[in-house]
């Protein structure tokens, strides 16, 4: 893999490789763009098969965070970290504290927190070595519930666009992934009266959803094929691809997973099949909204209200898609890139202005 070439192609600023032999730490920190502010992004722990797979995931996730923050109206850039390891076997105090020291060397260019495979307790260990963490137990806490809250309102926006009514009552929603976010999303949907179908690679998570929400369980490979109104990917990315798109029997794809489209072309492929796609970095922004609020003195009511605004942002994305006759994933990129470009131009003009005044 030609990392520098990949960085130049998509305008990444920095990739940091982290290794600590005694703790077993192998990690990669990616900073994509800091035009709007310091890069923010969770740390993911996953048993990647190769280092190249881990780098690719980190690059894709960091870029997505840039667009997520921009579209959500946050004054933050995009970054991400990945730790290579099995989150059920390889965690230790030393590993997370060593990682925290690497984060600290970046001096605030990168702010991290919870992601797949990482718990609140892990974030606290990272935070014992650096102040550049968000979502710790001393600030905004677990971002999962707020992510789910934002996704729930995003699903309502999708229902309004696809079915003419934003009520989810009586709709059949297939959730892929019953982890932290998937579980809380299912809770909201169950309370609203939706019919739930659940899959997960961990049987205990599926059993919990069955018992608490009356969800119907299906095997992980079957979730793409079930007839439903909305398919909600809430696990890992790249699951919307050449193999899965022909299997889908839904009218909407909308969920919390990052990087759901394996390639950009798959947004158009969904549109060709008459399936409305909620761009992932728009609908799942509740988590970073929650963490960002904690950076300035956490107020949960304020964070929840901002996450609820994902409803209106998605409707705006759908409007751009129709006006410009482009797939919704491209419409979302346009919305985010226009804001980044505006701030970049504003900053450049102010810096170049003569004297002490601001040149606007």
What report would you give on this structure?
Strand 1 and strand 2 (25-33) form a beta hairpin. The longest helix is centred in the last third of the chain and has 25 residues, at 328-352. The strands form two sheets. Strands 1, 2, 3, 4, 5 and 6 form a six-stranded mixed beta sheet that branches. Strands 9-8-7-10-11-12 form a six-stranded parallel beta sheet, with helices on both faces. It folds into two domains: 3-127, Rossmann fold (3-Layer(aba) Sandwich), CATH 3.40.50; 144-337, NAD(P)-binding Rossmann-like Domain (Rossmann fold, 3-Layer(aba) Sandwich), CATH 3.40.50. Helix 5 (144-163) runs antiparallel to helix 10 and helix 6 runs parallel beside helix 7. Helices cover 45% and strands 14% of the residues. The protein has 360 residues and is an alpha/beta fold. It has helices at residues 3-9, 51-71, 93-105, 120-127, 144-163, 180-192, 203-213, 265-272, 280-283, 286-294, 300-308, 310-324, 328-352, and strands at residues 14-20, 25-33, 39-40, 43-46, 77-84, 110-111, 172-176, 195-199, 216-217, 230-233, 252-253, 276-277.
Short account of what is shown:
45% of the residues lie in helices and 14% in strands.
* CATH architectural label of the largest domain: 3-Layer(aba) Sandwich
Residue windows where pLDDT falls under 50 for at least 5 positions: 353-360
Rounded to the nearest angstrom, the distance between the terminal CA atoms is: 43 Å
CATH topology annotation of the largest domain: Rossmann fold
Q: What is the 3D form?
A: globular
**Major β-sheet annotation:** 6 strands, mixed
